Each structure stands twice: as structure tokens, then as C-alpha cells.
UniProtKB/TrEMBL annotation:
It is a multi-pass membrane protein. Belongs to the binding-protein-dependent transport system permease family. FecCD subfamily. The chain crosses the membrane at residues 6-27, 39-58, 78-96, 103-122, 128-154, 175-193, 223-249, 261-283, 289-310. This is Iron chelate uptake ABC transporter, FeCT family, permease protein. GO terms for molecular function: transmembrane transporter activity. CDD domains: TM_ABC_iron-siderophores_like.
Amino acid sequence: MKHKLILTILAVLAVTMIAIYMTIASGGNWDYILPRRGMKVLAMVITASTIGISTVIFQTMTNNRILTPSIMGMDSLYMLLQTALIFIVGSGSALIMNRNLNFVVSVLLMMVFAMLLYKLLFKKEGSNLFFLLLLGLIFGTFFSSISTFMQVLIDPNEFLMIQDRMFASFNNVSADLVWVALGCIAVTVIWIWKDLKYLDVLSLGRDQALNLGVDYERVVRKLFLVTAVFVAISTALVGPILFLGLLVANVTYEVMKTYRHAYLMAASALISIIAVIGGQLLVERVFSFTTTLSVIVNFIGGVYFLYLLLRERS
């Protein structure tokens, strides 16, 4: 009952935040404002939900509350893809100018990378998830180095285009991209739905899950791919937001204080929606677009990350 009450309060707060964003400073131009703000809110809800839920699933698989899916190198891979496309085919190419095509190519390549990374490691017996994370960390550093190298060589005007994609932005989200992202998420959720019940057992650890009869390798492989898909969709939709998942997941644990993932995933999605829409309100109404949402999230997330490290140490 307590958890359902907290979820209800979070849902009311999220709806209130959406209502404020949709109606503030409208000036009565509802026909013009509502469709545009509505699409932006839908993009924020999709991004916030996928980041929050994927981080909770990822931390359950790794049994570590200071890790996020970005450690797999997805953010770095996204920037490498955008830089390489402009470096090789130029900023006037359809792969850059057509946002739908760019979104589909980015998501597919990031999913292929995640699957190759997993198959490369888990084709041998005895491999573990932490070796996979270490490999992802190395690949992420490698991708960042190559991106920086190519950014130094390209035309300054094209570098400005890359710079725009380094920070998450909801200002120019295409309506077509939102519907494509929703379709991908729906297919992914249907595919993983029956295995979500194992998350509570996985939180006990690998040995306990095996003793309780869970097909650990199969379930973790599917959850890993779902995490990769969610991160790929959110990153390709608006850009990288490094610390949002870490911030939202740990606030969720503090608020819910339960091991049941049905509550944790719902709460993480709602808290993430409140954080993203609240942050976007700050960007638009307080800072007048002089900064971006990712800068605010990374600043707060960085401070919170240091707090978590100091708390674990003590």
C-alpha cells in the first residue's frame, strides 16, 4: 500500500509538471503551442522513461548502484558515428540532413555493437559481466579518442554541427522520430515482458539466481540487449545525457526502499520524467536557453556521484 501511494504521488507530480510545461506563457495561442509542446513532452517522456528503466535493469544485473549503461561506451559510439559520418560523407549528406535516416542508422549500429560485444565475450564459458563492462569502458575511451582526432581535422563549420549533437536537446525533435522510437520500445517491451519477473531474483546475485532455477545466461543476455536498445533510442533521439540514469536510479532506491522491480521501474520512469521536464523548464524559463539540459543534469549528477562514492567509502 505504501509503495502504491508513493507511485500515485509521483504520477501526480509528473502530470502536474507536464501541465505546467504545456500551459506556461502560452498567451492563448493554443492551436500553435499545444501540438509543438505536446510532441516535445512526448520526446521527454520517452527519453526519461528509457533512461530510468534501463539504468535500474543494468544496476540489477551488475549488482552495483554507481554504474550506468553509459559505461558500455554507447555515448562515445554515438558521437563517433556522427563525427565519422560528417568526416567521411560531409555535412550535406542525406545521412546527416535526414534526421529519420540518421536516427535509424545510429540505433541499428549501436545495437549491432552491443550484440557483437556480448557475443564476442560470452561465446566462451566462464566469462563474466564485469569483464564485459571493462571491455565497454576500453571501447568507450577508444571511440572518444578517434572522435577527437577526426574533429580536429574537419572544417570548423562542420565541427559546429557535431558540437550541437554533443549535448542533449529537445528543441528540434522530429515528430516522425518520436513515433519510430515508440514503435521500437513497444516491440522491445513485448519481447522482454515474460523475463522481467526474474529481476527480483537477479538482484540476489548470480549464484543465488542459478540455485533458484533461473536460466541466468539467457535472461542476462536478453536484459543486456534491452538495455542497449533503450540507451541507443534515447541517445539517438535527443543526444547523450550521462548522469541522468545514475541520478534517477539512486533517488528511486531512496524513495521506494524495496527490492520489487515492478515498483522500482515505474518509480524510476516517473522520477526521470519529473527531473527532465523540470530541468527543461529551468533551461527555457530561468536560463533563457543559455545552457542545455545535459549541462544541468551532468552538474547535479556529478555532485551526486561524488556523494555516493564518499558514502560507500564511509
